[in-house]
């Protein structure tokens, strides 16, 4: 059933226009890059403990351009760290610390894993290096604020 535009009330037209604007703003938040200021490159130092098929901490956050040093300390058996995407590797003996240094020159999320077969759960010994700002967090917060504004706008009417 198609109604002519003249038979639609001005109130419904305003509501529809508001929903269209809201949808356009929401899609813009998702699609457009955030204009976050980038921090100048810094020296970042991490100490990883490797034991029982896990890294502690398992997720490392750096900015692009940072000079990163990862020290890995094997707690129980020989462990190592291989960083996908950077093709870097280091191995640490139990009770000893080994270091890996590089510049985080690529944005994204990179997996690191143990390159030494260290036991039955060895394939699950993985971690993650995240290079760049956490845009997903900021976009999620912007969408939540947009949803709150939409809720206030709809209650107002």
What is the topological layout?
Layout: H1 10-31, E1 43-51, E2 54-56, E3 59-62, E4 67-74, E5 79-83, E6 88-92, E7 97-103, E8 108-113, E9 126-131, H2 135-156
Parallel strand pairs: 1-4, 3-9
Antiparallel strand pairs: 1-2, 4-7, 5-6, 5-8, 8-9
Helix pairs in contact: 1-2
Describe the fold and architecture:
This protein is of the alpha+beta class. It folds into two domains: 14-32 and 136-156; 43-132, Cupredoxins -  blue copper proteins (Immunoglobulin-like). Helix content is 28%, strand content 34%. The protein has two helices and nine strands, in the order αβββββββββα. Strand 1 and strand 2 (54-56) form a beta hairpin. It is elongated. The mean pLDDT is 84.
Which terms would index this structure?
157 residues, single chain, 2 helices, 2 domains, Immunoglobulin-like
Level-2 CATH architecture of the largest domain: Sandwich
Overall number of domains: 2
The rounded distance between the terminal residues' Cα atoms is: 26 Å
**Secondary structure: helix percent:** 25-40%
CATH topology of the largest domain: Immunoglobulin-like
How are the strands ordered across the major sheet? 3-9-8-5-6
* Mean pLDDT across every amino acid position: 84
Helix/strand-derived category reads alpha+beta
Query: How large is the count of helical segments?
Result: 2
The CATH homologous superfamily of the largest domain: Cupredoxins -  blue copper proteins
Q: What are the segments in which pLDDT stays under 50 over at least 5 consecutive residues?
A: none
| Succession of helices and strands | HEEEEEEEEEH
Rg, please? 25 Å
Query: What's the β-strand tally?
Result: 9
Oligomer: single chain
Report the β-strand fraction as a percent range: 25-35%
Gross morphology is elongated
CATH class placement of the largest domain: Mainly Beta
What's the story with the biggest beta sheet? Answer: 5 strands, mixed
């Amino acid at each position: 059933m198609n109604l002519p535009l003249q038979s639609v009330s001005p109130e419904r037209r305003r509501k529809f226009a508001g929903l269209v604007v809201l949808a356009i703003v929401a899609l813009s938040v998702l699609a457009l890059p955030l204009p976050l200021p980038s921090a100048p490159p810094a020296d970042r130092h991490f100490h990883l403990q490797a034991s029982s098929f896990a890294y502690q901490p398992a997720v490392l956050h750096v900015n692009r351009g940072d000079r990163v040093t990862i020290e890995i300390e094997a707690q129980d058996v020989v462990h190592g760290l291989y960083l996908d995407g950077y093709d870097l590797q280091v191995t640490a003996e139990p009770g000893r610390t080994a270091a890996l240094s590089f510049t985080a020159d690529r944005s994204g999320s990179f997996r690191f894993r143990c390159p030494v077969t260290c036991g039955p759960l060895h394939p699950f010994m993985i971690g993650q290096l995240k290079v760049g700002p956490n845009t997903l967090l900021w976009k999620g917060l912007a969408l939540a604020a947009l949803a709150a504004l939409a809720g206030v706008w709809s209650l107002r009417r």
